[in-house]
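Q: what sequence does this backbone want?
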């Protein structure tokens, strides 16, 4: 068994000076005190700072506890034999408390991935259907003008991401770790399912459509909540909440790029084109908006769809500054 070393006043001051940062020189005394764990302790201290801990050490209480422990272990001879300077006394107390707790705290922080790096993925106005695979095997498809942030590795208690805009989620089941989406105006919680989330539908509401499984949506202030089943569309904010069966077969067309129409007014078609292809359509005669179309557009470009509509209804179009203008022939 390694014999315990008893340090004198000068050696304690040398140790305190190094641990407090006043002296970077690690002497033989300091190395002996750290017992070859200096690098580990420094790494844990760095992790502690990055974890944003704000709890302050009660130095007086810490020294009282430390002093009693040192006396029990016979590391200080007696009150008469060793005299500490007040400034060094406080530094030693704080330093030893740090050494005593860093191993546990550092390992806890690292094992729970509180220091995991975060990734941010964003799409522009001209980019959509960007697919991100998460560390748990889940997939996220981003619509245009959307952003999502997520850790490179989830911790052992939950899987949490933050979304701005719109995205379709396909979540890998994990009964021990709920998947949580910070959706700006609310929070979406699931265990394993597929669903669509809009963080702001233009009315300061979170909008969620469930494709499979069950989803819980809670308002930002926690006052309201919804539990949605497959095929249900829910909207919620701090003041109101409602759910209904979704009747829009093209709701997810931004993701699937399949538009299906059966006797649908062109006004509704043009609205879908705005959402799916980010284009605007204007007409010189409102009667055009009331005409009805039956067709399926599977991965067709916006211009191809406009040309098909013009051929079907004897129209012509002009494109200017990204806007399609339709006229009767």
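A:
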């Amino acid at each position: 068994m390694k014999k315990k070393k008893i340090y004198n006043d000068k050696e304690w001051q040398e140790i305190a000076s190094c641990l407090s940062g006043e002296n970077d020189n690690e002497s033989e005394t300091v190395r002996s005190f750290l017992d070859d764990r200096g690098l580990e302790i420094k790494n844990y201290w760095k992790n502690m700072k990055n974890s944003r801990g704000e709890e302050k050490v009660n130095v007086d209480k810490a020294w009282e506890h430390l002093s009693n422990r040192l006396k029990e272990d016979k590391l200080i001879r007696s009150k008469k034999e060793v005299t500490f300077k007040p400034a060094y006394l406080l530094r030693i107390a704080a330093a030893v408390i740090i050494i005593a707790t860093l191993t546990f705290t550092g390992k806890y922080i690292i094992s729970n991935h509180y220091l995991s790096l975060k990734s941010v993925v964003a799409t522009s106005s001209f980019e959509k259907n960007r697919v991100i695979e998460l560390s748990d095997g889940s997939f996220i498809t981003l619509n245009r003008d959307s952003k999502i942030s997520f850790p490179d590795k989830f911790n052992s208690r939950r899987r949490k991401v933050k979304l701005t805009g719109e995205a379709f989620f396909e979540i890998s089941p994990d009964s021990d770790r709920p998947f949580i989406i910070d959706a700006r105006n609310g929070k979406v919680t699931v265990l394993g399912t597929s669903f669509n989330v809009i963080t702001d539908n233009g009315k300061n509401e979170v909008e969620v459509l469930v494709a499979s499984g069950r989803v819980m949506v809670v308002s930002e202030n926690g006052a309201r909540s919804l539990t949605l089943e497959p095929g249900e569309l829910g909207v919620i904010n701090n003041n109101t909440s409602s759910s209904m069966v979704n009747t829009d077969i093209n709701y997810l067309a931004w993701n699937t790029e399949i538009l299906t129409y059966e006797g649908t007014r062109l006004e509704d078609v043009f609205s879908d084109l705005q959402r799916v292809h980010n284009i605007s359509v204007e007409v010189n005669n409102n009667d055009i908006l009331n005409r009805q179309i039956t067709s399926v557009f599977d991965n067709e470009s916006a211009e191809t769809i406009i040309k098909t509509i013009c051929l079907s209804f004897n129209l012509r179009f002009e494109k200017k500054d990204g806007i399609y203008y339709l006229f009767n022939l």
